[in-house]
Amino acid sequence: MNVQALKPTPEPDFIALAETLGQRFAANAAEADETDCFVAENYAALKNSGLVEAGVPLELGGGGASIATLADMLRVLGHHCSSTALAFSMHTHQVAIPAWRWSTQKVAAVEPLLKRIAAERIILLSSGGSDWIAGSGRAEKVEGGYRISGRKIFTSGAPAGDLLMTGAVLAEDGAEPMVLHFGIPMSSPHVRIDPVWKTLGMRGTGSHDVIIDGHVVPDAAVALKRKAGEWHPLFQIIASIAFPLVYSAYLGVAESACAIALDLARKRKSNIHVTELVGRMQTELKGAQLAQRFMVDSTGGAMSAQSVDDVMTGKRLLTDHAIRAVEYAMEAAGGAGFYRAQGLERRFRDIQGARYHVLQAGPQAEYAGAMALGLPVATVY
Question: What domains lie within the chain, and their CATH numbers?
Answer without folding.
Answer: 10-122 (1.10.540.10), 138-227 (2.40.110.10), 233-373 (1.20.140.10)
